[in-house]
TrEMBL record:
This is ABC transporter permease. PANTHER family: D,D-DIPEPTIDE TRANSPORT SYSTEM PERMEASE PROTEIN DDPC-RELATED, OLIGOPEPTIDE TRANSPORT SYSTEM PERMEASE PROTEIN APPC. Belongs to the binding-protein-dependent transport system permease family. The chain crosses the membrane at residues 40-62, 102-130, 142-160, 166-182, 213-235, 271-291. Residues 100-291 form the ABC transmembrane type-1 domain. It is a multi-pass membrane protein.
């Protein structure tokens, strides 16, 4: 009988796993592993990395000066001008490369500003509650009650269209969604045991809020910021298309599409509007794929 019990135990005992030998995977390793399984997210990350490098090294990559005017107006693609020239005679391929700088600057700059504002306001509102929460959330409701694009157009018309103004306007008007998200996350985290322990130990409120609560709320903020970059790029392109964004001769994918308002250009000169339109679609799709991958990878239900 002892021999039989030993054999049964050998059959029942599970094999020793790799994690038991070398240690368990850290949460960061699990996140990276899950993100890498999302093929579209990985492809989007590679594409965005290439576009960011293109924007940084535009003077090296671009074959010509984006402001130089040639004697060929609205010329079709050729060996001299790979994507043709615009109606002024400037090389479209060069301007397309330099325009990526504008889109990346607006997307990253605006999102950085309003994520910082929304995170601070949402964290303060959710943690303190009471009249502080009421005032900040009613202020958020006021900002969200206005049509976004119309409000941006009004502010831009007052301050004047420029790259700097576009970044600050989008940054100062885009925080309500982040504030609501952070507030909800903080409300659910401030009652957990480690936060209550910090209060009992006499830790300062800023330390509890910014060192213990917000680091655990970074996942939804990061996902929201990723999608916000795509939205900011679309808004900038829309404003530039309407003539209220980045002004010529500075190249922007939006103001390059302005030439497409003519029916003749739409039908007979597609090289004037197809490249910038395709770039906007590619960048927005890539960022959205990255956001989907981050959302799946950072899902707390899967990090076990």
């Amino acid at each position: 009988m002892p021999m039989l019990e030993t054999n049964i135990k050998k059959d029942v005992e599970p094999p020793i796993s790799h994690t038991e030998i070398g240690g368990e995977e850290t949460p960061l390793q699990l996140i990276i592993k899950r993100f890498m399984k999302h093929r579209l997210a990985v492809a989007g990350s590679i594409l965005m990395l290439l576009i960011i490098l293109m924007a940084i090294f535009a003077p090296v990559i671009a074959p010509k000066d984006p402001y130089q005017v040639y004697d060929e107006f609205s010329a079709p693609p050729s060996a001299e001008h790979w994507l043709g020239t615009d109606q002024v005679g400037r090389d479209l391929f060069t301007r397309l490369i330099y325009a990526s700088r504008v889109s990346m600057a607006v997307g990253l700059g605006a999102v950085l500003i309003y994520t910082l504002i929304g995170t601070i306001l949402g964290a303060v509102s959710g943690y303190f509650g009471g009249w502080v929460d009421i005032v900040l959330m009613r202020l958020t409701d006021v900002f969200m009650s206005f049509p976004g694009l119309m409000l941006i157009l009004v502010v831009v018309s007052i301050l004047g269209p420029s790259l700097f103004n576009i970044i600050w306007i989008l940054g100062l008007l885009g925080w309500p969604a982040v504030a609501r998200l952070v507030r909800g996350t903080v409300l659910s985290l401030k009652h957990v045991d480690y936060v209550k322990s910090g209060v009992v130990l006499g830790l300062s409120t800023p330390r509890i809020l910014f060192q213990h609560i917000l680091p655990n709320a970074i996942a939804p903020i990061l996902v929201q910021a990723t999608f916000g970059i795509a939205a900011a790029i679309i808004v900038e392109a829309s404003l530039s298309f309407l003539g209220m964004g980045v002004q010529p001769p500075t190249a922007s994918w939006g103001n390059m599409l302005t030439d497409a308002q003519s029916l003749t250009v739409l039908t007979d000169q597609p090289w004037l509007w197809v490249p910038p339109g395709v770039m906007i679609v590619i960048v927005v799709l890539a960022i959205n794929f990255i956001g989907d991958g981050l959302r799946d990878a950072l899902d707390p239900k899967t990090l076990k």
